[in-house]
Amino acid sequence: MAAEDDGGPALRIRIDFPDRPSLGPGKIALLEAIESAGSITSAARAMKMSYRRAWLLVEELNSMFAEPLVTTQLGGARGGGAMVTPAGRGVIESYRAVEARAAEATEDLLGALSDPDPAADDGLQGEAGR
């Protein structure tokens, strides 16, 4: 998101479901790291996370949706691996779309929050009364 790139305030989205665990930036980043690295081990290493923690998150992600988001293959001569499924790719894309729309919708307010004197910004004053 642009605000993170320029050192301004950042919006982080966590989606809370009534009947299953939350989906947020950490789980999405793990899915993207698995997609990039091709294994849970490499993704965990890239994220400075233990393999066990990454594996538990993958199990949780797979239990949250009707179809698994990550599939694994046992090691062999070439070693095992992990793959983000089409359902997993869809979850990543949907999450990133929600994130982008939220960032766009709040861009002016986030900018006002980065001002050391937010009370001087009429835009923020107007939003506070709603």
TrEMBL record:
Domain of life of the source: Bacteria
Positions of region (Disordered): 108-130
PANTHER family associated with the record: DNA-BINDING TRANSCRIPTIONAL DUAL REGULATOR MODE, TRANSCRIPTIONAL REGULATOR MODE
Name of protein: Molybdate transport system regulatory protein
Provenance organism: Amorphus orientalis
Species lineage: Bacteria, Pseudomonadati, Pseudomonadota, Alphaproteobacteria, Hyphomicrobiales
